[in-house]
Structures are given as C-alpha cells and as structure tokens.
UniProtKB/TrEMBL annotation:
Record-annotated HTH araC/xylS-type domain positions: 397-496
Signal peptide: none
SMART domains: HTH_ARAC, REC
Protein name: DNA-binding response regulator
Residues of the Response regulatory domain: 3-120
Keywords per UniProt: DNA-binding, Phosphoprotein, Transcription, Transcription regulation
Length: 499
C-alpha cells in the first residue's frame, strides 16, 4: 500500500487530487492533505508516509524547502513536485534535491498514475527485500542457542518501536498459514511471519505502543473466527521495545503455545502472563521406574515395560510437563533400552518414524505424544522379542558348539552374547532355561570332561599340563576345582583310571 500526502495551498486542487487518486486504486491511500509544508512537517512524526505530492509556491515552507527537509529527516519518503510551466527552473532544482519527478499543471492523471504505479512497484520491491533480510536475521536470532550478538542486534531494524511474538501451531502448514494471512489482512499491524517447521509459525507483530489486554482479546477473536473449528494452538508474549528481548519473547510465546497439549478445546489461545509456571522434577519420576524398567527390558517383559512407561507418562501429565521436558524423559527411556537391548538402536533408527523430536513437536495433545511414543517403543520391543524367539532354538546350540571347539579359551559373556545377537543377561537366562546349567557351570563341565579324558589316555602329560590344556593355567586352582566337582584330585583320578 502506497501512503500518500498532498500539499497545496489551493484546496480545490489538493482535494480533487485526493479523490482522483483514491478512486484509481485501493492500494493508493491518501492519509492527509495539507495547505502548507509546515503543517505536514508538524504532523510527520505520527505519520507513516511513502510519497509526498507537493506544490512549489506555498506560504511559510514552500515545496522546495519541504523536499530538502524530507530528504534530510526521512530519506525513504519519495517526493513529487507539481509546478506550472513558468516554474520549470524550480522543477529542475527540485530534481537536484532528489524529488522523484515533477508534474506540470494542470495535472495529467495518466502521467500521475504511471508515476504512482512505478513508485508502488519500487516500494514493494524494496519492502520485500527488507522483509527477506529482516526474516533471515530474525530466524538466526530466534533459533540460536547462544545470546544474540551485539552486531546482529545492531543489524536488525524493526518496522515499529514495539513488538509482540505469536507462536502458531497446527497439524499442518496450510491451516496455520491461512490464519496468519487472515490476521495480516484484517489487523492494522505490520507482521513478520516465519515458518520454523511444518505446522509451526512465528509471527512478530509490530505496533507503535504496547498491546493491551483488549488488543490481545481482539486478536484472539480474529484468530478464533479464522480457525473456524480447526485444531490450533496459539501462544503470545508480552510487548517489548528492546530487540535484545526478541528471543525471550519467542520462548515465552512458545511456552504459552505448548501448554495447549493439555487444553481439550480445539483452539488454544494463551498469553504468557496468564500461564502459571511451577518447577517440576522430571528426574525423580524416571528414577522411580528405572530399575524395574531395566529388569523388564532384560527379560523382554513387554507388558511390564510398557506399564512402567505409562506410569511415567501419568506422572508427567499430572505435573503438566512441557514438550521439551517430555522429550528428555523419552530420551532417557530410549537410552535405557539401547543399553539393555543390543538390537534396539538399529531398529529405532531404521524404523519409518518421524523421529522423537519431530513427533513430540508436531503432537497437538499429551495423549497423542504418549500414544506415538509407546506405539513406536512397543513395536521395537515386539520385533526384538519375535527375533529372539526365532533365535532361541539355535542360539544355545551355537554357543554350545563354540564352547565344545574352544573350551580352553577364555569365554567372555559379552563376546558369546554378540555371537548370537543377544544381550548378556538374556543369553544367561536363556542358556540356563535350555540346559539347566549356567554358562560357567557348562564350561566347567566340558573342560573337566576333557581333563578326565586326558588323565585316562595321555599318561605322559603332567597334571599341570593337562590343566593348562583345558583352560586352567593355575595348577592349584585346577586341582581344587577338579576335586570339588569330581570328588578326587587329578592325581587320584589318574591312578584309579590306570588301574
């Protein structure tokens, strides 16, 4: 929109021009007509002007002086000088003073409109460029983890002295964009709209003064009408006039928006000043279920593990934990599963899933967050359990064959578990279930069986050599273990066997 002021000491000329311009295009807005340059300059601080159309000869401050003063104080305002043919020399001086152009009286409306359309196009190009530059700086400022640098703040020029941040969140981009566009069209505010991610927009609303409660209520009513039953969460910050507080305003608005996951209404609209924030300890409820959860994971008790997770979510809901806090707790659960279940990490990363961060960020209710997480979590546990049941018949046999062939080597539990893609704890339980022996007892039985065979059939081998051959490098330990299990020492067994 091109905001225009007309300055001429002849009322018929200035009012006639105003009517003619207003009829031509709704984007041409005549915001004032003045009989003298001084009157315009007096009101200039309260105006948002793009173009001044001024006559040359006027009392007090004439057109040339007005153009010079505008150039010094408001160089962004473009000037058009109206003159009679006999004042051509004045017109040339005006051009040197950076007036955009001059128009000869009587005014040729086609020439005037051609000039105004040209200015509108130039203005739109300039504003688009300015908006793109400002949007880039704003995105850097809002999404950065560190406090904004002084250089960045100095580079950022806002359209109005005050700003308020609005965060819009919807299920997809389209409804959010629709509401934002309607707000921009219907409210008399300058607005920057930034898309943070699909369905999440930040609007920075600029104003000449702080927004009042009635202003926010009016904006809320507009949003409610535009949403028209759509599920939409909107959070707003307080008004500030310090660019250093932009990021804090964004975080406040985001928090006010995030509390919408606990609001059963389709439209959630809240200001940060109305949000009661309380300190919560998310580590305590997680620690309460951590050990039993680990136990359930180790034995792949899916029902028990999911019950622990559900209880954890119930506590988070009662505390009204924010999405970023829920995310941290979910990560702790995932880390526990990755530590206890060897297959979990690969399945978690490879599954067709939004990703934990994106899933929580896009959810519109707490129950949706819990459902999405537990469904994905349980599907991975189920896949692991099915795989292990398929493997269980062959896993123990694989381990037994390895021990039979390598009984004299050190059998590390982690190494054995890796061979059959099981966790050490699960392999231990499975082996005992299948054989009736622990892994240690089974290895001992195999070794001593081999030792007895050598004691019978290799009379030339000394006792300590036989012990080393079956994996016991310490002769004293070999003797002690052999007697405890067999009932006699290796020497006694050898004598008995020979006889």
């Amino acid at each position: 929109m091109l905001r225009i002021a007309i300055v001429d000491d002849e009322i018929l000329i200035r009012e006639g021009l105003a009517r003619m311009i207003s009829k031509e295009n709704t984007e041409f807005l005549v915001i004032g007509t003045y009989s003298d340059g001084k009157h315009l300059l007096d009101e200039l601080p309260s105006l948002q002007l793009d173009v001044v159309i001024t006559d040359i000869r006027m009392p007090q401050i004439n057109g040339l002086e007005l153009i010079k003063q505008l150039k010094g104080s408001h160089p962004q305002i473009r000037s058009i000088l109206m003159s009679g043919f006999v004042e051509f020399n004045y017109a040339r001086e005006a051009i040197r003073s950076s007036a955009v152009d001059y128009l000869l009286k009587p005014i040729d409306k086609e020439q005037l409109f051609e000039l105004l359309y040209q200015l509108e196009e130039e203005q739109q190009f300039s504003r688009d460029k300015e908006v793109r530059h400002r949007s880039g700086l704003l995105l850097t400022l809002l999404q950065g983890d560190e406090p904004p640098s002084p250089l960045l703040l100095l580079s950022l020029t806002l359209p109005q002295p005050y700003f308020s941040v609005f965060v819009f969140k919807g299920r997809s981009r389209e409804p959010v964009c629709f509401c934002v566009d309607r707000l921009r069209q219907e409210m008399a505010f300058s607005i920057d709209s930034l898309e943070i991610q699909n369905g999440l927009h930040v609007c920075i609303l600029y104003s000449t003064k702080q927004l009042s409660d009635s202003d926010r209520n009016e904006i809320g009513d507009r949003i409610r009408i535009s949403a028209n039953g759509m599920i939409l969460h909107v959070g707003t910050s307080s008004s500030y006039n310090d660019t250093a507080k932009l990021r804090q305003a964004y975080l406040d608005a985001k928090l006010a928006c995030s509390i919408g996951i606990y609001n059963p209404d389709r439209l959630h609209y809240a200001n940060i000043q109305n949000i009661q924030q309380s300190e919560i300890n998310i580590l305590e409820p997680f620690n309460a279920i951590k050990e039993p959860l680990i136990h359930d994971l180790q034995i792949l008790n899916m029902e028990g593990a999911l019950e622990r997770v559900h209880n954890l979510f119930s506590v988070l809901k009662s505390q009204q934990a924010m999405p970023h806090q829920i995310l941290r707790v979910c990560r702790w659960v995932i880390e526990s599963a990755q530590k206890e279940l060897q297959e979990f990490e690969a399945l978690y990363k490879g599954a067709p899933y939004l990703g934990l961060d994106e899933s929580i960020a896009s959810s519109m209710s707490f129950s949706e967050i819990e459902r999405s997480f537990t469904n994905h979590f349980s599907s991975i546990l189920f896949e692991i359990r099915v795989h292990r049941l398929e493997m269980s018949g062959t896993a123990v046999e694989t381990i037994k064959r390895w021990i039979s062939a390598n009984y004299n080597q050190h059998a590390d539990l982690n190494t054995l578990a890796n061979m059959v893609f099981l966790t050490p704890s699960y392999l231990s339980k499975l082996f005992k279930q299948e054989t009736g022996l622990t892994l240690t007892d089974y290895i001992t039985e195999i070794r001593l069986r081999k030792a007895k065979h050598l004691l019978k059939n290799a009379p030339d081998l000394k006792i300590h050599e036989i012990g080393a051959e079956v994996g016991y490098g310490d002769p004293a330990y070999f003797n002690k273990l052999f007697k405890r299990v067999v009932g006699v020492t290796p020497n006694e067994y050898k004598r008995i066997s020979i006889v």
